[in-house]
Structure prediction request, 346 residues.
Amino acid sequence: MTAVTVDTIPVARPRNARKWLLFAIILVVAYGIIPAFGTSYLFEAILLPFFALSLAALGLNILTGYAGQLSLGSAAFMAVGAFAAYNFNLRVPGLPLIVSLFLAGVTAAAFGILFGLPSLRLRGFYLAVSTLAAQFFVKWALTRFGWLSNYNSSGVIDAPPLTLLGLRFDGPIGRYLFALTIVVAVTAFAARLVATRSGREFVAVRDNEIAAKVFGVSIFRTKLLAFGISSFIIGIAGFLWAFAYLRTVEPDGFNLDRSFSILFIIIIGGLATIRGAFFGAALIVVFPLVLSRIGALIFGGLFDSGVLDMSQRIVIGALIIVFLIAEPNGLVALWDRLTKGLTARI
Prediction:
């Protein structure tokens, strides 16, 4: 008789099955339950800014978390994406909005590669300071050249109707579904990217450039690829911020504070993880709303917008210090430990 071993029988990996099941549940909730029961406040005040900031943080996490290149110019690349999409849609009659979105991402990627050139010589703090040039240059260009805002005296641009594959997405629910679809597609692309050879080369350059070079990794190509892909994703996030969330935006809306907010998101959420961008963005978006409700409940009229803004900065700063010292891997690590503990008990 022929012996039959267990090894010849293909067995599905339970962990991967759980991941796909969780992903399917999230999609069902996002596309089915939330649109059916969500309110306009939920869509416009929480979910739409959450999507845009999550995508921007995802782009920065690829550059900083995976490739180890620190950048403080994220808001500039968001602005490039928003204004580029506006001009492509305005200047090219009949151009589908999804094509304008893609070209806006490509334009942001080109700017990212250009301002990523100093990374070939600079590292760490010096590289972060050099990326500030993008922040100041883009803001100067948007205010200096009126053509970019269709000669609006205030530099404000208004978003066109959102259309995708012939479907028009109007109202809070429509804009939510449009943004959700873009976020799902870009997140899938990013998750696939970090699992490829290019993603492994990002990590190799981050950990040790000399060792990566010895093993045949092109430092020049890897760094510029990281800047390009990161800026591409951040440019799409700028499109969502301007077109799906605010519906109108000005250059001052993409200031240095926005760049720091995106950096804080990946520090709090967790570096070098796709989920960290979403965890950190959820905290950054929801926390001011919770803080305002608690402050108004305790202090009443004394807790105005100025006090709220200052309190938010203090608490966020304290959280960053706590995470850097106690849990450098961010909210993702805390979530993983919690779920493992619950799974072990079950």
The mean pLDDT is 89. The radius of gyration is 22 Å.
